[in-house]
Design brief:
18 strands, 14 helices, 3 domains, Oxidized Rhodanese, domain 1
């Protein structure tokens, strides 16, 4: 059995191998991932499996180069390397050949279902760096000179589906075919290289703070996850460090009723670790708070997905506090909008597409802590996003800074009524 682009937690792969009486002999990294920490090194240390990656990765861990022309033989199945730079300079795709015929291709972050990988994550990270325009040009040729040359019936398996920030328009499907993508995927259409580069670089999502950090972790290989988690202090103490932020993962209604000073309300949701790594910088210590021990344990694991388990100063269960956030009177606000400072923490593209308040200050949530000086506090401050999740986090950040100067309010889910 060969595992391609494993997640940080390797237990599912070990269980699958045991269930099917298989031996894990290889692990392939299509590139050093930016959006998650891979379990490739731990799989090697646990099973003895060989790690394969492109020579250009400059991997620090023990590995075997896997580039154009290299193969891994598994009985009647052969895994063949294709160098497909574009998302990164060191990306490879893996073609699966069975009984002499190409059956599938594992495209990493090069070709997604409905899109291709973004080219702007390796300008300052990794063994090799490259400007986004250069990588976009390489992506154009990797798609056309390598992947589109495969037969139309070859199944496409990318590393990610919808939800990742490694692309901008991914489908929720887990697989497709080369033929289907030629028909429907914008990046495989007949356009010039210049047109492709322009379109690929347009409206890419923000780059979370943790992305370059994870590239470096994956280049070196992450240590044992269970051991790292076992070293995290768990349980409340009588005195907390007043200079360290608290990541309070409880529901916003409970948070507003009572929380600790210097708390950020980053609710337990589908993208918790993405937003954690977007708001909190690598190497910055934080406390982690949840409503019960079961949820706390699951959130510690999710911190491990992005390599942030080492930055947890302490994790503990918490249910009430002395700090509160007052309820927001929407009707009064709509009559007296000029009496408030409005901060829109949606991304720039969202604001451009659907402006809501004419005089709002637009500071995307990932930039909020760094741009606090741009927000005046001579009026009450109202924070909004597009659905309430980000505004819960943003309003808690501003409350921790401006609570002594002015009131801070969260528009919350009610903003949806103004977006219709």
């Amino acid at each position: 059995m060969v595992v391609i682009d494993p997640a940080r937690d390797i237990k599912p792969y070990l269980a699958f191998a045991e269930k099917h009486d298989a031996t894990i002999i290889g692990v392939i990294e299509t590139h050093p991932h930016a959006d998650f920490v891979s379990g490739h090194l731990e799989l090697h240390q646990t099973t003895g499996a060989t790690i394969y990656c492109a020579a250009l990765v400059g991997a620090v861990y023990l590995h075997q180069a896997f580039d154009d022309g290299d193969v891994i033989n598994l009985g009647k199945t052969t895994l063949k390397a294709l160098n497909t730079p574009g998302h990164s300079p060191d990306s490879v795709s893996v073609v699966l050949e069975h009984d002499g015929k190409d059956k599938a291709v594992f495209t990493g972050d090069t070709l997604f279902i409905g899109d291709c990988g973004r080219p702007d994550l390796r300008e300052k990270a990794g063994n090799l760096t490259a400007m986004r325009e250069e990588l976009a040009a390489k992506m154009y040729h990797s798609l056309r000179d390598k992947l589109m040359m495969l037969n139309n019936d070859v199944i496409v398996y990318p590393t990610h589906g919808a939800g990742t920030l490694c692309g901008k328009a991914l489908s929720e499907a887990n697989s497709s075919t080369i033929g289907a993508e030629k028909l429907s995927n914008w990046s495989l259409q007949s356009i010039t290289e210049a047109e492709f580069i322009t379109k690929l670089l347009q409206d890419q999502p923000f780059v979370p703070k943790y992305f370059p950090f994870d590239v470096e972790i994956n280049k070196h290989g992450a240590g044992n996850l269970a051991q790292a988690i076992a070293n995290i202090p768990v349980g409340r103490v009588t005195k907390l460090n007043s200079s360290i932020y608290i990541i309070d993962t409880r529901a916003e209604k409970e948070f507003k009723k009572g929380h600790l000073p210097l708390s950020i309300n980053l609710q337990n949701g589908d993208k918790f670790e993405t937003w954690l790594g977007s708001i909190v910088a690598p190497e910055e210590a934080f406390y982690l708070v949840a409503e019960n021990e079961e949820i706390l344990a699951s959130l510690i694991l999710r911190c491990g997905k992005i390599g942030y388990e080492h930055f947890i100063e302490r994790a503990f269960v918490f249910q009430a506090g002395t700090e509160v956030m007052d309820a927001f009177d929407i009707d009064w606000f709509l009559m007296k909008k000029t009496d408030y400072t409005i901060v829109d923490i949606r991304n720039n593209g969202e604001v451009k597409e659907h402006p809501i308040f004419e005089n709002a200050i637009n500071i995307p949530l990932p930039e909020l802590r760094e741009r606090l000086s741009e927000i005046p506090f001579n009026k009450p401050i109202v924070i909004h996003c597009a659905g309430g999740y980000r505004s819960a986090a943003g309003s808690s950040i501003l409350q921790s800074v401006f609570a002594e100067q002015t009131k801070v309010y969260d528009f919350g889910v009610a903003i949806k009524t103004l977006l219709k």
